[in-house]
Design goal:
Largest sheet: 7 strands, parallel
Number of strands: 31
Strand order of the largest sheet: 3-2-8-9-1-11-10
Strand content: 5-15%
Radius of gyration: 35 Å
Distance between the termini: 49 Å
Oligomer: single chain
Number of helices: 47
């Protein structure tokens, strides 16, 4: 596809700094790649490929960008007649800095760590571990202060605490969170204290704050007074006699004069408001209501500014002490990190700023010697998603830019910034979109022949969405987004323009966005109990029904070149504001047989698979602990029933469950043979693991548990098996991290690791979930809007739009980068907690910024849709009142939609505003609220509206079925029931397991009842555990790109590290030479030429369907028990299927592998033929150690 003129400008505008405002779906990544390629391959005016910095905000984005650039370079090399120059550039490019900002900063620190308190081998302190350490540093600081500085400690305690010192802890955490965004923390603290100590209030930052606060409050009051004036002139003029009209007009003008006088003098009113004219309240209640509102505003405003002097004194006293305790806290925290040779992401950015900056004689920040050297070295600096940068990151790259001029605070002339203010949604991560806005305002539009050093280019042609989606998005944001709400005026330069002609060559009314209005008045519904018990809602049921109908009917997806295909679950994404909303939608889809997956932000340590593993570790550490012992016994690992647990428990109530199990194994209690065998297996397993744990690391112990119990395979059979497997593998990483730092943790053994986990849980922290690859899975995605950033789906359903924005009511401190601070302070003498004037002023300012970000969040949500957009609008009593208020506000604002948009409190309210002024809503309001006032300013056919109520879904209520059934007794039925009740169950069948893994099935060895001692670690010749090495090889082959060249093996491994498939330590275990041999093998060529292939194919099949014989397992094989397994690789060829099993055994031979694994492959072959109803033409083992394919 040819480049647009704007894209071409962005690609060609070299030798200057360029800021690109790239709207959603405008191809910014493609532009960035092309610009880099042009500057690398242009032999006449090229830039060495290793002199480039490209910064992204995620590891995935870095990996994707590097891969795309590599492919483009390879294309250019293949097309070139003289590729020597390009090959040289390709080699240099492998050393180009393409990374996240954090990785880039850490590299600078490692290369310049001579004068720091840490060594270049430092580790990264992140996530829960950083939170736990920070919490400990705060506790240490407070303990120090309570003993050495009790008077100052008490000042903070009295102002922020009630029962304990948690108030001080919270205030430290809140201000520390803010200071993470400030380039120079100490400088901000010092300057803020100086501002508070200024004798002249008018020359301080607080005078400006007061002015903004006054304008905000007084403008609101004046607005209500002017509304009253409009009422008098337009409505009351004709219904009042002349005397009353004159009196009310004069009073209204007096009200306006008093408020305008406050505005002019920036002060409280000097005159009082007069008593309401008699009789007007009954004639016009709205007049009285407006008057009460502006009088309340003026009263609150007057009270606040009358207390300014007192507030400022209290803030000054408190901040002085807070400043001091913060410095002590940072010192204690830094010493703890230095002891562990660890730094956080925040530390990395702050250290680099200090390395790169100096000050001149006037105190201006200038480039340090290191910054000048790096700015000369790197000839291109590119920053993707620049709107998400914070102030620290902005300063770092300004200091690195070539010819940086600090006086202008603008970038030098070698920077390429790409972003979109409309998609800035990470304020909670300290992003500052003002950086992007300011650079854009101070740049001039690009002109080819100009010599301007800072230019701007706008990319607004959208190549993602259908014209119907684009038209609706433009309609919504043209009506609600402005500089006041959204930080950008949504004009022609910001609108989206259709560009995906290849995919959507003609208009289609079927693609018009659909607004679904859903009645959620549960009290009116007939199925209240159904919703309460099932965990679903009318909204989730409606959306699930819609998705199910579309899948069932084969609703078509548009593809390029006028091709189409039926939709699948993976084509749908449900977006909500919050994670907790997902469960109802997942449950509703599940009821309709559609697999859906949500996001698990928290709950890793409480997830079932991790809870079981931790309980196993707890009984290995102490088997007398009954609760974890019972949990493990009843888990899928051992499958004890509740009745069996009760039988074990009552055998001796005065001792532990584990000791009772031991006594049963030694025939001291009379139990069934089946229960005895279960007890023997459990006892022996625990014994083996306890012995293994003595001489092995925790990481190795967990791997041994996985290998010897098939726990991973069992967990993979669940619906969310891939997630469970990823979580279990992640536990190995956490154990490895603990093992590596054993000398500084709680003991370095299993007990210490469990204490470490307990500390995390007791502090209400958690650990991140393991990442899974979702490329081949077919499910409906249920995501938060934040997590959808950068993604796209054919169908987007925006739901839960009625959820109100969460106010920041819990904060006790608000800070601003301009060195202002406000507190909510306790006053013990009056037992009250009061918001100081600066707190009120800063709160209002922050609330406006938060509303702007919420509107940008709505923009991100709506622009994820490729083909069709669905917006769900729940309607209940509360949202109906909101709708009425919006209608009234629109009327008062003369249907100025952008002005009304500044006062909303949920995403849905912005959508309602755009509906209230559209002709289509006028037709449908009769079903919702006939008295609702609308004004159809727009009539374009941009969307459809449908109404849904609970009665539109039919539910089968079991209680109703029973209640309405005919219970007349049928004699024949009664006799059959009696015969059934007489049935005697064959208990011998209960001894046959309901499930077996393939590994268990092929094992002929009897279970050992004794304990087998493992070989001590110091006697093992290999430097890495074989299991760990084998896991790394299997994982590589599971996710690698088979089309990679053997010589690019290291690049492929690095790519997988970047995509979070491997950690650095895992990757070191991969035998690179053996992997290179695999890429050169005939098997790899066979995979690439196949029709298709499947990796990690799990299956579950009934035992009596298999054509496999094993005398030791004949009872199971003749039963309807299930066999579960996972096949490494299936290759689909025209004449049949090929099964491949990877083996990484060392010191092995073809004979040994054939003998040991032929049974396993025989089971795989039988299962695959049953599942696919196709012949398996070949079963193969690929031995990585022998670098050979072995036919079985």
């Amino acid at each position: 596809m040819p480049w647009t003129p704007q894209q071409q400008d962005a690609i060609n505008s070299i030798n200057r700094s360029v800021i690109v405002s790239a709207s959603a779906g405008s191809g910014k990544t493609a532009v960035l790649v092309e610009r880099v390629i042009n500057q690398i391959i242009n032999k006449e005016n090229y830039i060495p490929a290793d002199k480039i910095i490209i910064v992204t905000f995620t590891n995935d984005a870095s990996a994707e960008l590097r891969q795309r650039l590599n492919l483009r370079l390879q294309e250019e090399i293949s097309k070139s007649s003289n590729s020597r120059f390009l090959l040289q550039q390709y080699t240099l490019f492998q050393n180009a800095k393409i990374s996240t900002i954090d990785s880039f900063c850490f590299d600078i620190i490692r290369n310049n760590a001579e004068n720091l308190d840490i060594t270049s081998g430092f580790t990264i302190l992140e996530g829960t571990k950083a939170d736990v350490m920070k919490n400990q540093a705060i506790n240490d600081t407070l303990e120090l202060w309570s003993k050495s500085k009790p008077e100052k400690y008490n000042i903070l305690y009295d102002r922020f605490c009630l029962k304990d010192d948690s108030g001080i802890k919270n205030i430290i955490l809140e201000i520390d969170k803010f200071l993470e965004s400030i380039p120079d923390r100490e400088e901000w603290l010092e300057n803020t204290e100086k501002e508070l100590k200024k004798a002249d209030f008018k020359n301080s930052v607080y005078e400006k704050l007061l002015s903004e606060y006054s304008k905000n409050q007084l403008d609101s009051a004046l607005e209500f007074a002017l509304q009253n004036q409009s009422l008098i002139l337009n409505e009351l003029k004709f219904s009042l006699d002349s005397k009353v009209f004159t009196a009310i007009s004069n009073q209204c003008q007096d009200d306006i004069d008093i408020i305008e006088n406050c505005i002019r003098n920036n002060s409280a009113p000097s005159d009082k408001f007069k008593t309401l004219v008699r009789g007007i309240k009954a004639i016009c209640p709205e007049y009285d209501k407006n008057r009460s509102k502006f009088k309340d505003i003026i009263k609150a405003y007057s009270e606040n500014i009358s207390c300014i002097d007192e507030d400022m004194k209290d803030i000054r006293d408190v901040f002085s002490v807070l400043h001091e305790i913060l410095l002590d806290f940072y010192q204690i925290f830094w010493e703890a990190k230095c002891q562990k040779n660890s730094i956080s992401f925040d530390d990395g950015e702050k250290i680099v700023i200090k390395m790169l900056s100096d000050t001149d004689e006037n105190g201006n920040i200038i480039q340090s010697k290191l910054a000048r050297e790096l700015s000369e070295k790197y000839q291109i600096i590119m920053i993707d998603e620049y709107q998400d940068s914070n102030d620290k990151q902005d300063r770092i790259f300004k200091l690195l830019s070539k010819n940086y001029v600090p006086e202008k605070n603008m970038y030098g002339d070698n920077v390429f910034l790409v972003g979109d203010v409309k998609q800035s949604i990470y304020r909670f991560r300290l992003a500052n979109p003002d950086n992007f806005i300011n650079i854009l305002k101070n740049s001039v539009p690009y002109k080819k022949d100009s010599n301007d050093s800072n230019v701007s280019v706008f990319l607004n042609k959208n190549f993602r969405s259908s014209p119907e989606v684009i038209n609706y998005v433009n309609y919504v944001f043209s009506n609600v987004m402005s500089e006041k709400c959204g930080d950008v005026e949504y004009d022609d330069s910001e609108k989206l323009y259709f560009g995906a002609e290849n995919e959507y060559p003609y208009p289609d009314s079927e693609r018009k966005p659909e607004i679904i209005i859903i009645n959620q008045n549960i009290e009116e519904n007939q199925n209240n109990d159904y919703y309460e018990e099932s965990g679903v809602t009318p909204e989730s049921e409606c959306i699930a029904e819609k998705i199910a109908d579309m899948i069932k009917s084969g609703y078509e997806i548009n593809l390029p070149d006028n091709k189409k295909r039926p939709c699948e679950p993976k084509d749908f994404c449900i977006l909500a504001r919050q994670t907790k909303c997902s469960s109802a939608f997942i449950e509703s889809l599940k009821k309709r047989g559609i697999y859906a997956r949500g996001e698990e932000q928290t709950g890793y340590l409480k997830s079932r698979e991790i809870a079981i593993l931790l309980d196993i570790l707890r009984i290995i550490d102490n088997p007398l602990n009954d609760i974890p012992a019972i949990a493990v016994m009843m888990s899928p690992m051992f499958m004890f029933t509740s009745q069996e647990i009760a039988e074990i428990r009552v055998s001796d109530k005065n001792t532990s469950v584990y000791l009772n199990v031991q006594n049963i194994c030694e025939n001291q209690y009379n139990v069934s043979e089946n229960l005895k065998q279960k007890c023997i297996k459990f006892r022996n397993t625990v014994r083996d693991f306890r012995t293994y744990s003595i001489i092995h690391s925790i990481e190795e112990l967990i791997e041994e548990i996985y290998d010897s119990t098939d726990f991973l395979s069992i967990m993979q059979q669940f619906v969310d098996g891939e997630r469970k497997k990823a979580n279990l593998r992640m536990l190995i990483q956490y154990a490895r991290g603990y093992d590596e730092n054993a000398n500084i943790e709680n003991g370095g053994n299993l007990s210490g690791f469990l204490r470490y986990i307990d500390n995390i849980q007791s502090g209400d922290y958690d650990l991140p979930h393991g990442k899974i690859s979702a490329v081949s899975e077919n499910f409906v995605a249920v995501k938060t809007i934040h997590k959808s950033k950068g993604l796209e789906y054919p169908f987007i359903f925006l739901v839960k739009t009625d959820i109100e924005f969460i106010p920041d009511n819990k904060m006790s401190i608000i800070c601003s980068p301009e060195n202002a601070v406000g507190f909510k302070l306790n006053y013990p003498e009056t037992m009250t907690k009061i918001k100081t004037f600066p707190f009120e002023a800063l709160y209002i300012s922050n609330k406006e910024k938060k509303a702007s970000e919420e509107l940008r969040l709505l923009y991100v949500a709506l622009t994820r849709a490729k083909q069709k957009l669905f917006v769900s609008m729940p309607l209940n009593d509360k949202s109906l009142n909101t709708l009425k208020n919006l209608s009234e506000n629109l009327r008062k604002n003369n249907y100025d939609t952008k002005k009304t948009a500044c006062t909303v409190n949920s995403l849905g309210e912005w959508i309602w505003i755009t509906l209230l002024v559209h002709e289509k809503f006028s037709d449908i309001k009769q079903e919702i609220c006939p008295e609702l006032e609308t004004n159809p300013l727009f009539s374009d056919d941009l969307f459809n509206i449908s109404c849904f109520s609970e009665s539109d879904i039919k539910h089968s209520d079991p209680d109703e079925i029973i209640k309405n059934a005919d219970f007349a007794v049928n004699p024949e039925t009664l006799e059959n029931l009696r015969n059934i009740m007489k049935f005697s169950y064959d208990l011998s069948r209960s001894e046959i397991p309901s499930k077996m893994t393939v590994t268990q099935l092929i094992s002929d060895e009897p279970e050992a009842e004794g304990v087998t001692l493992k070989v001590p670690q110091f006697m093992i010749e290999e430097s890495q555990p074989a299991t760990e090495r084998g896991n790394a090889i299997h994982k590589f082959l599971q996710y690698c790109n088979f089309w990679s060249d053997a010589d690019d093996t290291e690049d492929e491994i690095q790519s997988m590290i970047d995509r979070n498939y491997f950690t650095e330590s895992e990757a070191e275990l991969i035998p690179k030479e053996l992997i290179k041999k695999f890429f050169k093998s005939g098997l790899c060529e066979r995979i690439k030429s196949a029709l298709s292939f499947e990796r990690e194919r799990s299956f579950e099949i009934q035992a009596n369907e298999l054509e496999y014989k094993n005398p030791e397992k004949s009872d199971f094989l003749n039963s309807d028990g299930m066999i579960i397994g996972v096949i490494d690789l299936l290759i689909h060829e025209p004449d049949g299927i090929v099964i491949v099993d990877y083996k990484s055994n060392r010191n092995t031979s073809e004979y040994y592998l054939r003998k040991k694994y032929s049974g396993q492959l025989e089971i795989y072959k039988s299962a695959v033929e049953k599942i696919y109803q196709k012949p398996v033409k070949e079963t193969l083992i690929y031995s990585t150690e022998l670098a050979k394919t072995i036919s079985i």
